[in-house]
Design brief:
Protein Transport Mog1p, Chain A; alpha+beta; 22% helix
Length: 318
């Protein structure tokens, strides 16, 4: 009987046959069976999670105390409104810039901005305060500067009735000579051919017949040279005092104003021919601002009983 096996197990292991099992002899001095130990298994070293087994465990760190959350400050209503307005202004500006760019790209023609035109102020009358001359014989009038004088051939004559003159000169006194003047002369009361009158006058002031001796004498008296006359503006039709007229401009030393002929230092002079009731008048004046303003005031004061005739002049050959 094996001492290491319980009796009950041996009993259970006995074959259930009819043949009796021989009983082996019992050893009076039984020897214990040697116990076979399993070979030792290698054991993996235990590694610490923090470090090696040789390092000491890390000291525990106490938790950092957390400061309590600061209370949320409420924004001022004024600041909020100002911020909203600023955002609206930025959005509006951005929208305007984008819209302007869109219009510039999409539109091919931009309507011009209307410009307000101010009505011009009235021009002051340069003849305001001037003297007035009235001719009661030929029914015309004009205004002239206060420092000018009315006479014949640039001279004042006592006892002369200035209101009935056939030829007069309105002039600016200048020491010895009449340099600037405005002349009106009655040329004819019943002209046969006004073209001939005009042509003869142009020839007289542009083609003077002078000898060298007379020319030298005139230059000495004037203190200036005599030059060849030139026509600055050819014959053309204009309107003077509401009547048709014909005019031309000549630059010359020689003057023929219809009432007198004389020599002056070189000057530019305008000649105007007009008729009224068969009366032919020649107006001539040095080309300047005062004399042009005198012409602007010239007018006839009555209504003629018969229809006015005007010169039928053609361009004069030069």
């Amino acid at each position: 009987m094996d001492p290491n096996i319980p009796a009950s197990q041996e009993e259970n292991n006995t074959p259930q046959t009819g043949v009796p099992t021989p009983i082996p002899p019992v050893n009076p001095n039984p020897q214990p069976e040697p116990i076979i130990m399993p070979p030792p298994q290698p054991v993996a070293p235990i590694v610490s999670e923090v470090g090696t087994t040789d390092q000491p465990p890390a000291p525990s760190i106490p938790p950092t105390p957390q400061a309590p959350p600061e209370p949320v400050k409420k924004s001022s209503p004024v600041f909020v409104i100002a911020l909203i307005l600023l955002l609206i202004a930025i959005a509006a500006l951005g929208g305007y810039v984008l819209w302007t760019k869109y219009l510039n790209k999409s539109s091919t023609k931009v309507a011009p901005t209307p410009i307000a035109i101010e009505s011009p102020s009235p021009t002051p009358d340069p003849t305001a305060g001037w003297k007035t001359y009235v001719n009661t014989k030929y029914f015309y009038s004009l205004k002239y500067p206060n420092d000018y004088k009315v006479g014949i051939n640039g001279m004042d004559r006592e006892g002369l009735n200035l209101e009935t003159l056939d030829s007069l000169v309105i002039y600016l006194p200048d020491s010895e000579r009449v340099i600037e003047n405005f002349a009106i002369s009655l040329i004819s009361t019943n002209p046969i051919n006004i073209n001939e009158l005009i042509q003869k006058h142009i020839d007289k002031v542009t083609k003077p017949q002078l000898t060298e001796a007379s020319k030298a004498s005139l230059e000495k008296d004037m203190g200036s040279s005599i030059v060849d006359p030139t026509i600055q503006e050819p014959l053309q039709q204009i309107t003077v005092g509401g009547l048709p007229a014909y005019a031309y401009v000549i630059k010359s030393n020689f003057v023929d104003d219809g009432g007198a002929e004389y020599v002056v230092p070189i000057q530019t002079r305008k000649y105007i021919w007009l008729t009224r009731n068969k009366d032919v008048f020649l107006i001539s004046y040095t080309d300047s601002a005062p004399t042009n303003n005198i012409l602007s005031t010239f007018k006839f004061n009555d209504t003629p009983s018969s229809s006015s005739s005007s010169p039928s002049a053609s361009p004069v050959a030069r």
